[in-house]
Every structure is written in C-alpha cells, then in structure tokens.
Write a structure and sequence with these properties.
alpha/beta; Urease, subunit C, domain 1; TIM Barrel; 2 domains; 5-stranded parallel sheet; 4-stranded mixed sheet; 12 helices; globular
C-alpha cells in the first residue's frame, strides 16, 4: 500500500491535523491544530498550507526494550512448545551454533530498517552477553550505532542471568566491555537464594563504571517471585542514583493485593522506570498444553500510574522463540497494549508510554511537537483513537527532518540464506 499523499519539500504547514492534547501540554484528549515545518524543524506558520482533513500526527516513536540480536531466527529455530523454557533453550542452542558477527549484523540491520520505516527514531536493545557472545555482539552493535547515527539513536544493554553474575568472574570483563561501548548494565533477576546480595553488588559495579542499569524482572506468574521488591529496596538502601529500568514484572499481577500494592509503593519510592512488554508476555505466560490461558501476564500499569511511576510499553522480541510475531512497529505495541491492558476508558495520555516516558527512562531526547524540535513525525489518515487503533495504518507517512522517507519494508526473503532456505 502506498502513502496516502505526497508532501512537498521545504517549508509548509500541515493544516487541520489531530494531535493528542498532552503533546502540546494542554488538558483534554484530542485537538485540531496546525503544524508547520521549515528547515527540517517544527516552525512558526508557513505560507504553503495543506489541508490534512483531520489526519492524526505523532512524533516519531521510542522503543526502549528490544532484542535486535535475537530477531528473525524463528524460521530456523522455532519455539517447540511456546513456553518460556522452550524459548530459552532454543535461543541458547541457536546462538551457540549460529550467532557469528555476520549473522547478528544482518538480522539487526533488517530490524532497524523495519523500525525506521514504521516511524521509530530511538531504540534500546538487549544483547545476550554471556561469554564468548559478548565479544561478538557488542562490536557489531557499535558498528550499527555508527552507521545509523542521524537516523536512529541506539543504546544497548548487556543481558545475563543473575546466576551468571559475580564480582570476580567473567562478568567483570563484560561490564568493562559495556562501559567501553557506552552501554547499560543489565541482568535477569529471579529468586535465587542470595539475590539481594547479587543485586547490591551489581549496582555497585554499575556505579563504579558510571553506568545506568536495566533489569529483566520476574518474568513469571509465580506469585512468590518478587525480585522487583528486592531491586527497589536495594536502590533505596544504597542510594544508587543512576536511572534504573525494570522490565516485564509479570508476577506482581499474580500476587495478593496487599503484597502487590506494598511492592509498588517501594517501586515508586525508589523511582524505578517500568517497561511493560504486553505482546511477548501474553504469548509466553500461562501457556499450558491443551489448556486455555487464564492470565494475561501484563504488569499492573494502572496501579503504577496512580503512584506516578514512569510506565512505558515496548516491542520486546520479534520473530524469535520468545515471541513468534511482531514487526518493530510501536503503533502495533500501543494498539495491543490498549486492548490487553484496558488503556481505553482511562487517562488520555497513554500515548506518552511510547514517546516521552521511554525517552525519559533511557535518556533519549524527548519527542516533541514544540517549535524548534526536529520535524520527525508520523502522520496517520486516522482522525481519532478508534480509527488509529483499528487498522495497521500501513499507509502512514513518516517524516524525518521534515522530509518524507521511503517506507518500503525489507523483504523477509533477504534473510533466507541465514535460515537455510533455498
């Protein structure tokens, strides 16, 4: 499908567009306004006006939790049963056998081109970093970050299980590698006996290197798993000052009300940033053979908002054993988060969960519609939320620096030789 209109070059005004009021610092839901573009930035009113007939305009997206190193391996390594353990064992086997620098680079580039075409301008990715993979994937990421500079702001987080962490083992070298590449220190937390000590030592290692941290947390519906609380307590007690991101946090949705709310009070006090990954969690959680799932796996996003916890949504895995689907499209993420998490009939500013909220959590430049901000915009023919979230919006327009980009998506056939396809 082609874009629904061709915009001019240079200076012009998009007249009669629909914009979420929160993006202009105004109360209410959606408003009609004009947006002008000149010199690659949002500007004062320009003489050339184009009637957009109510088309909705958003700034380009921020995707703060992805796995670009895993992306698109599903055709060669599908999840055998759709479970979390099925995903974990399958990815480990695939990475050990296939994740060369060339393999990781090509799949990563495919995902970046896809995200760019959909309108994303900043991505944080997790990189599996158990040795020797750390010495393969981090240099590839550094090359990709340089290649995409000016089009996509990229950050990377190392990813290891908490049982692979120690202060005197191989992870120390991994942490130094992350620091050299200006990355983020990351770890998966689950309730091993000494998890409280491991978290504190992990924060200390990050602090010594001047790094922020990003945890995968309680990706389970086991109500007894509460490492989210351990992280919040550790941050409060140590005074760790750098930004802390916690992702997934599924188990809190299965806890009794008193325990869950007490945990969230600590999360708010610690100032943690939460990122929910609703599509992946809906895919993996509460999956049992020949049994309909009862629970959604999404964390308690409404209760977090009430406590002024910074909440975002992100794409997570894409066509790999942890999630068989997805296309690096943050509009799809917002659409599914709205349905899964009942964001409708709620606050009117949930759109910030894919814009300013993740930018704040990661330190990316905040998307903006203010005069002087880059004219990095996504334009949809939809005129209200129902129209926007009912269709994929495949004919959207993406502007970068005020210029309309080619939105042709990469063809999956490009990767056929990596999948052993003829």
């Amino acid at each position: 499908m082609t874009d629904f209109m061709q915009l001019p070059h240079g200076a012009y005004t998009l007249e009669n567009v629909t914009v979420p009021a929160c993006l202009l610092g105004l109360p209410g839901d959606l408003i009609r306004t004009n947006i002008s573009v000149s010199g690659g930035a949002i500007a004062a009113e320009q003489p050339m006006g184009l009637d957009m007939k109510g088309a909705m305009v958003l700034p380009c997206f921020v995707d703060m939790h992805s796995h670009l190193d895993k992306g698109h391996i599903w055709p060669r390594s599908p999840n055998p049963d759709g479970t979390f353990m099925g995903a974990l064992t399958t990815v480990r086997a695939d990475s050990a056998a296939r994740w060369t620098a060339a393999d990781v680079r090509r799949r990563m580039d495919f995902s970046l081109r896809t995200a760019f075409a959909h309108g994303t301008r900043a991505i944080r990715t997790h990189l599996d970093s158990a040795p020797p993979q750390d010495d393969i994937s981090w240099p590839v990421f550094a090359e990709m970050r340089d290649e995409w500079a000016g089009r996509m702001d990229l950050q990377a987080v190392c990813l290891i299980g908490c049982e692979g962490f120690s202060t005197d083992g191989p992870f120390r070298q991994t942490a130094d590698l992350v620091a050299r590449h200006r990355g983020v220190l990351g770890m998966v937390t689950y309730p091993v006996p000494d998890i409280a000590l491991r978290i504190r030592q992990f924060l200390q290692m990050a602090g010594e290197r001047g790094l922020s941290v990003d945890f995968h947390v309680d990706e389970t519906l086991d109500h007894t798993s509460n490492t989210l609380r351990e992280i919040a307590e550790a941050v409060i007690e140590t005074g760790f000052a750098a930004p802390v991101v916690v992702g997934h946090c599924c188990s809190v949705s299965a806890m009794d009300e008193a325990t869950a709310m007490d945990t969230l009070d600590l999360v708010a006090k610690a100032g943690l940033n939460v990122v929910s990954l609703p599509m992946c969690n809906l895919y993996l959680q509460d999956r049992h053979a020949a049994r309909t799932p009862r629970m959604r796996g999404i964390t308690l996003v409404h209760e977090m908002r009430v406590r002024d916890i910074n909440v975002s949504f992100a794409s997570d895995n894409t066509r790999d054993p942890f999630y068989a689907y997805g296309d690096m499209d943050m509009l799809e993420v917002l659409r599914e988060a709205t349905r899964i998490g009942h964001l409708d009939h709620s606050a009117p500013d949930w759109v910030q969960s894919i814009l300013s909220n993740p930018a704040q959590a990661c330190g990316f430049k905040a998307p903006s519609l203010a005069i002087g901000a880059p004219a990095d915009l996504v334009i949809f023919k939809a005129r209200d939320w129902s129209e926007l979230l009912s269709r994929p919006q495949s004919d959207r327009i993406v502007l970068r620096g005020g210029e309309q980009i080619d939105r042709t998506l990469p063809d999956y056939a490009e990767l056929d030789d990596l999948m052993d396809r003829p």
